[in-house]
Amino acid sequence: MEIKEMKAKLEAMSCNSDSKDSASEKKIVELNIIKERKSNDQLQEIRKELINGLLEHGGPRAHIGIKRMGELDPKAFSNACKQIFPGDNAKEIINEDDPKLKELKEELGGEIYTQVTTALLEINEYNPSGRYPVAEMWNFKEGRKATLKEVVQFVLKQWKTHKRKR
């Protein structure tokens, strides 16, 4: 409702401000900024709810889901560690500054090296200040970040399928 009211005020002000009135121009700019902020806030709220919903109801075989950016794939890492360290004598090899990535590749192989470097790149891209994994809507089928449109389509499709089963 507030956005509709602002749009009406904005249109009225732009129609009435044929002369170069700086006060009304400032007001128009201010209303545009407020409108953009509210839209962005709404999108962020929707995004948050979609992530929460996909976390609760997403399955392992879904092609749209949540990927924690910067998180290692525990299965691949566990398999490599079992090969190198039989008997569960695992030790910490990587420090957060990752000066030993070449050594890691030589000792554990390319799969783990790829996992660790991918996780580091994701952390640097999605949460460089906190340096911990964060949730992101992900298109697993195409191996990329999912768009809001894809997520909404996926959720609606899941909802329709679930609705039919009742």
Q: Termini distance?
A: 36 Å
- How is the biggest beta sheet arranged? 3 strands, antiparallel
* Count of alpha and pi helical runs: 6
Helical coverage, percent range: 55-70%
Strand content: 5-15%
Give the radius of gyration. Answer: 24 Å
Spatial order of the strands forming the largest sheet: 1-2-3
Shape: elongated
Strand tally is 3
Name the average pLDDT: 79
Listing every helix as H and every strand as E from the N terminus to the C terminus, the arrangement reads: HHEHHHEEH
Name the poorly predicted regions. 89-96
Structural class: mainly alpha
Features of the shown structure:
single chain; 166 residues; mainly alpha; three-stranded antiparallel β-sheet; 6 helices; 63% helix; 8% strand; elongated
Concise summary:
With 166 residues, the chain is mainly α. The chain is 63% helix and 8% strand.
Descriptive notes:
With 166 residues, this protein is mainly alpha-helical. The chain has a domain at 61-166. It is 63% helix and 8% strand. β2 and β3 form a beta hairpin. α1 packs antiparallel against α2 and α4 packs antiparallel against α5 (110-126). 7% of the residues are buried.
